[in-house]
Specification:
This protein has 5 helices and 8 strands; from the N terminus they run βαβββββαββααα. It has 164 residues and is α+β, with helices and mostly antiparallel strands. The chain has one domain. Strands 2-8-7-1-6-5-4-3 form an 8-stranded antiparallel sheet. α4 crosses α5.
Length: 164
């Protein structure tokens, strides 16, 4: 994960409620093992498939696959779009992962993703904290402004001094 990327997943609301019995504030499997660290998705991670019982599957969310140009996938199980160091969308059978490059932030791309999430009745789940966020443009913009990725882009030297 590039420090300048704001990463999140699209998760169906019905899947969260189906697994947890209600809408929860955070999904622990999307949280980092340590604050600021990568998502703890190692070999032993118990990753829940929130899409399993949802009415639609990630691959049926065709409009999301048209937001960025297709790129070669490192896995036969995923369709990938964009650039791994820039804006990127990964579509798996059990997840949709998004990364926004805050060095060259595209409000249009974010708006399109948020609108698709809303129309597909999905929440955005932030990587690193697991926080569940409503598909509301201002709410997501607020999360971006509070993120490490934004802090790094605003002042790399200050960010590295504070995190180092």
């Amino acid at each position: 994960m590039a420090v300048w990327q704001f990463k999140f997943s699209l998760i169906p609301t019905s899947g969260i409620i189906g697994v947890h019995g209600r809408l929860v504030r955070a999904l622990p499997e999307y949280a980092a093992a340590r604050p600021g660290g990568p998502v703890d998705g190692g070999e032993d991670a118990q990753f829940v498939n929130y899409w399993e019982k949802a009415a639609m599957k990630p691959a049926s969310l065709q409009p999301i696959m048209q937001l960025l140009p297709p790129t070669k996938s490192w896995s036969p199980d995923a369709k990938m779009f964009g650039d791994s160091e820039g804006d990127q969308i990964e579509v798996w059978d059990d997840d949709i992962n998004c990364a926004l490059d805050l060095r060259t932030f595209s409000k249009e791309l974010l708006t399109a993703i948020v609108q698709l999430a809303s129309s597909a009745q999905c929440k955005l789940v932030l990587h690193g904290t697991g926080e569940v966020v409503e598909p509301d443009l201002q709410a997501v913009l607020d999360k971006i402004l509070a993120s490490d990725a934004y802090s790094f882009c605003a002042s790399p030297a200050k960010f590295l001094r504070e995190k180092g």
